[in-house]
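User: Can you help me understand a structure? I only have the sequence.
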Amino acid sequence: MAEMTTDPALTPAAPAPQQQPVASYAHTVIVLLIMAGVATLSYFGKSGRPASPMVTYLSTIAWQWGLFALVYFGMRKRIGSLRDFFGPRWQQFDDGVMDFVIAGGFLFVTFAARGIVMLFVIKVLGMGQEMTSLADRMKGLEFIIPRTPLDAALFVLVSLTAGIVEEFVFRGYLQKQMIALTGNVAAGVILSGVLFGLGHAYQGAWQVVQIAVTGILFGVLAQWRGSLKPGIIAHVAQNTLAGVLLYLLSRGVIPTTP
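Assistant: Let's start by predicting it. Here is the structure, written out as tokens:
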């Protein structure tokens, strides 16, 4: 009797392993409540903000690393090496180069996506016209605009901190938690991106929309690459470029009005 064989092409693929939560959901609720509280205080405390951006920079750095510690404390027993949590280690020089190349290309994608969202909101929905001028946008960001070389240097440190911490918290922690909770990768990426936007509520509703879109794209990047490293590189570069632009605008090198 001939031995029956199974065509590998007809064998159903094994289902992808479901994302497991990296911390308890109670811990996630605590993290979200603390983040919501800080975002609320930032939003309603606009009038009491310090005149010097240096105070804002230092307090932001302290808050960000405090958040990093809080998140890591809740997930430390469920993950392996923290270094590996950020993504596969670079085994050779080309690995690092590839992450930088991907990050550079991703920046162009995010800039294009934000431009498309802006056009859609303004032209199709008829909203956001009050934020079309550069001068108007700067009014809501006066408290973080670097005005001296020292401010600019500290802004770079803030950018580095935000790039590492926000990718770790939103794409490394919350995105995994949301995927595990919903059982759906797309839903988890979108929810994490929306939370990322809401975390920047102090910048106003218009910026929340744009930052949420950016957060979703960062989530797609992290999910695609299986690593936080390209996102961190792009995040740091994006924030640093924004700081350079704000510094040049504050010095009058670039005019804010046509």
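Now, to help you interpret it: The radius of gyration is 21 Å. The CA atoms of residues 71 and 169 lie 7 Å apart. Let me know which part you'd like to focus on.
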